Amino acid sequence: MGAWDEWNVTEDADLGIRLARFGYRVRALDSDTSEEAPHQLKNWFRQRVRWQKGWMQTLIVHSRRPNFFRRDLGPKRAFAALILIGGAIVGCLFWPVFAAATLWRALTVGDDGALAPAREMTDVYVYILALAGAWSIALPASVAARLRGSRLSLRTVALMPVYYGLVCAATWTALIHLALWPYYWGKTDHGMRRPRPTLRVVRTRSSM
């Protein structure tokens, strides 16, 4: 693919972009993985910091020459890639500010409910964005849970803002790491709850 960025801490993101730039189509496999998900907060947070920093590195590396990037991917795919990567970063960086502003607007309505027309227009716009953002988080999780034969409890839905807040904290931490320790690789500890493998002998009849 032309190069291997050994300094990118989320190498699959960089490799996916490189594959696309060489004309390949990158898709997700409709399959399961046996990899253990981090269940400890410290371990999970370290993984999210590494992922977010890798997305930042990928965005920086592939946008250094925007004309070549647009030529390789085409205008639509290049724009989609920038929105996907950049949106995942910027959205997490500024979500706490947006969430605080939304709550402030909801709590500062006058006693008589009267607001200036400009304030009413901006409030409606902010509420629509907030509702759309909540659905964009809850709806995929609900669909995924149904496909897996699980139920998405109200407790899980209520904790989603807390989860997203932790992702935002990881993104800000990743930005600091990128500035101070750009090549630090925060490893994820696996095998914390994996049961001991057992040997199973399968006997088959010989066809001879």
Describe the protein in words.
This protein is mainly alpha-helical and 208 residues long. The chain has one domain (11-26, 37-180). Helix content is 63%, strand content 0%. It is built from 6 helices and no strands. The chain has helices spanning 11-21, 41-62, 66-73, 75-107, 117-147, 154-180. Helix 3 crosses helix 4 and helix 4 (75-107) crosses helix 5 (117-147). It is globular. The termini are far apart. The relative contact order is 0.14. The model has no long low-confidence stretch (mean pLDDT 83).
Mean pLDDT metric: 83
- Helix/sheet category: mainly alpha
Shape annotation: globular
Tally of extended strands?
Answer: 0
End-to-end separation in angstroms reads: 47 Å
Instruction: Calculate Rg over CA atoms.
Output: 22 Å
How many domains is the backbone divided into?
1
Largest sheet properties: none
User: Fraction of residues in helices?
Assistant: 55-70%
Q: What proportion of the residues form beta strands (DSSP E)?
A: under 5%
Pattern of helices and strands = HHHHHH
Query: What is the helix tally?
Result: 6
Spans of at least 5 consecutive residues with low confidence = none
List the keywords.
globular; 208 residues; mainly alpha; 6 helices
Give the topology.
Layout (H helix, E strand, L loop, with lengths): L10 H11 L19 H22 L3 H8 L1 H33 L9 H31 L6 H27 L28
Helix pairs in contact: 1-2, 2-4, 2-6, 3-4, 4-5, 4-6
